[in-house]
Amino acid sequence: MTTHAPQTAAAVTLPVSLDEAVAALTAMPAAVPVAGGTDLMAAVNAGLLRPAGLVGLGRISEIRGWHYQDGHALLGAGLTHARMGRPDFAALIPALAAASRAAGPPQIRNAGTLGGNIVTAAPTGDALPVLAALEAVLVIAGPGGARRETPVSHLLAGRDMLEPAELVGFVRVPLLHAPQVFLKATGRTGPGRATASVAVVLDPARRGVRCAVGAIAPMPLRPLEAEQWIASLIDWDGERAALAPEALHAFGEYVAAACIPDPVGEGDQTAPPLSPAVVHLRRTVAALARRALGRALA
Question: What range(s) does the FAD-binding PCMH-type domain occupy (predicted)?
């Protein structure tokens, strides 16, 4: 944030409930909702955004915690990364807690929120591949007390966008009580934006493995064939950790090739080789996927 922004917002509203926030956005269509402001204020300071008004979400207590509902956790969109990184939350959804702890330096984790990570939809958002692997569902609040649900992957892919005055209120995540792992690679030592990230979730009840790769595309990628193949090799009724190292290596390569495919030549022309940077990225994804699955099965 800065003390010398070229222009300040014309109006600031601080509702205390989700429906009040929706009503404020209905009354001020040009207003922008703000929670942690980690992305919004960066855009304002860079001169990329000049909101006519702000609707602050920080006083809405109902979206700052979570509760349980039919085998799921209903997570408030106002949960901060710092809160999700704590041990009690990690016991429920380990991969999301790991992603939250990796979200950046303390000032970002203390301010940034789950809902902001989703709505901003930056490719490097650490929570996004985890939510994609968990097949999380968004609960969206609209005018007149309306509530509707949509898979988080639909919003990230642009298949179901937020309508005017709608807000993401909650995120429904299944409580699998099974191993989950999130790993990411950055271009430097310590907290930083991901160059690639991988979330792996085991679902013993459905005998499935779910994997999502983040940061390498505009939205998290799900290598569905790789998931199905590796799930068929796991002994779900016995020692899951008995999977051969060769299978782990092959899974990593399968995931990387699915998410970063070889180029295809046009007509009779030979396809050009991958650039060294892309080859390095593919190797990074393969290593992350291999290690994540190995840790989940350990």
Answer: 4-178
Reported confidence tier of residue 189, pLDDT bands at 50, 70, 90: low
Segment 202-228, tens digit of pLDDT: 999 999 999 999 999 999 999 999 999
Residues 157, 161, 166: CA angle, nearest 5 degrees: 145
Cβ pair 212, 129 in contact under 8 A:
yes
Q: Which residues of 38-71 are buried (b: 16+ CB within 10 A; e: fewer)?
A: bbbbeebeeeeeebebbbbbbebeebbebeeeee
53-56 and 72-76: which strand pairing?
Answer: unpaired
The interaxial angle of helices 94-101 and 127-134, nearest 10 deg, is 170
**Rounded to whole angstroms, how far apart are CA atoms 22 and 143?**
6
The residues with which 12 forms a beta bridge, in sequence order, are: 54
State the pLDDT at residue 290: 98
